[in-house]
Each structure stands twice: as C-alpha cells, then as structure tokens.
Specification:
heterodimer, A: alpha+beta, HU Protein, Chain A, 2 domains, two-stranded antiparallel ribbon, elongated, B: alpha+beta, 3-stranded antiparallel beta sheet, two-stranded antiparallel sheet, 3 helices, 5 strands
Chain lengths: 111, 95
C-alpha cells in the first residue's frame, strides 16, 4: 500500500522544525510560496528553482480528440499546460534512492 | 522566476524577516518536497498540483547512429499533474 502523500501540513512541519517559526507562521509561508508560484505560472512565466527543478509552460496545439469510450470526435482547443522537470541533482538523488546522502541544510533558528 | 525572485517577493511582504531567513525557509520547503520524492513518496499540494515519483522499466534500446543494441537501466522520473486552481489560472487561453 502507498504511504500517505506529503501535503501542505508536512511542509509546514518541516519549516517549523528547522526554522523555529510558529506552526501558524510556517503554514502561512507554505501558502505564500504556493501562491507566488501559482500567479507566476498563471501569468505565463516559467519558474526555475536551482537544485529542485523547473516548471515550464508548454503550448499545446488544437487537435481533434476522440472520446475513448464513445469514439465521438471532439475538437480540443489549444491550451497551455505545465511541465515539471526535476533538476539533475534531484534526478541523481532519486536514482540513488535514499535521502541519506542528500546535502542537508541543518537547522537555523530565527528569532 | 528564479529562486531568488521568489525570495525577494516573499521578503517584500514579510516585515521583520531578513532575506537570508526567507531564503532558508524557501530552501527547506523545496528540500522537503525533494526528500519525499527521493524516498518514493508522493507530494500533493491541493490546488497547485501533485508530484508522483515513478519508475521507467529497464529496456533494450538502440544507438541510432550505430544501430547497436544497448540496455537502458531502470530510471526514475517525476510526474507532475497540475491541480484545479493552477489549471484554471493558467491552462485555458480562451478563458
């Protein structure tokens, strides 16, 4: 069975644990980061996070699609979609398969 | 937008926190997602999207230049599926 997915809550926990902000402040930061990424992509701008990966807007042409169940042909309008490309570092770490060898950040406490 | 741009934008709206503090928060955020993927865990951020680590099976491939058969080992990749809110915000050009 698949483990539980990592969600906003775990990301906020990680910030709280490593940075020493309150739980509420940590959750707010998670939200802010996600909001900035969403608005950036919505405006058509790509995102590049070194060491993590990039989000690229790709334009998809209009095409004639087919409903696989009914075989009815429909027109699919041109659209944008978002492609995530993991960085070389992340791909290498994934190939190795455990996070022990990852370059950790350690903890820094803000006050 | 680069990591530094993201940090600057966050710094503009967070009084009392230095650039380096915010840089650290942003690093922890992406490192945590990366660690989960490395451990084979899925990451789901409702609205934004989900990252699912997947495995491509090993296969025999051909060197297009020489025609030689070469074996390609199993490789890992990340499937990103954009969430509803991100989709609504960015995908439809016609509105």
């Amino acid at each position: 069975m698949r483990e539980k997915s990592v969600t906003r809550s775990e990301l906020a926990d990680a910030i709280q644990r490593n940075v020493g902000l309150t739980r509420l402040e940590s959750a707010e930061f998670v939200e802010k980061i996600i909001n900035h990424m969403t608005t950036t992509l919505a405006s058509g701008e790509n995102i590049l996070i070194t060491g993590f990966g990039s989000f690229q807007i790709v334009e998809r042409n209009a095409r004639t699609g087919r409903n696989p169940r009914t075989k009815v042909e429909t027109h699919v309008a041109a659209r944008r979609s978002i492609k995530f490309k993991p960085s070389q570092v992340l791909r290498d770490d994934m190939a190795r398969g455990n996070s022990n060898g990852r370059k950790g950040l350690g903890s820094v406490f803000i006050d | 937008m680069l990591r530094g741009d993201l940090i600057n934008r966050l710094a503009d709206e967070s009084q009392g926190l230095k650039y380096d503090d915010i840089k650290y928060i942003v690093d922890v955020f992406f490192e945590e997602i990366g660690n989960a993927l490395v451990q084979g865990q899925r990451v789901e951020i409702r609205g934004f999207g989900s990252f699912t680590p997947k495995c491509r099976a090993a296969r025999m491939a051909r060197n297009p230049k020489s025609g030689d058969q070469v074996s390609v080992g199993e490789r890992k990749f990340v499937h990103f599926k954009s969430g509803k809110i991100l989709k609504a915000a960015s995908i439809r050009q016609d509105g």
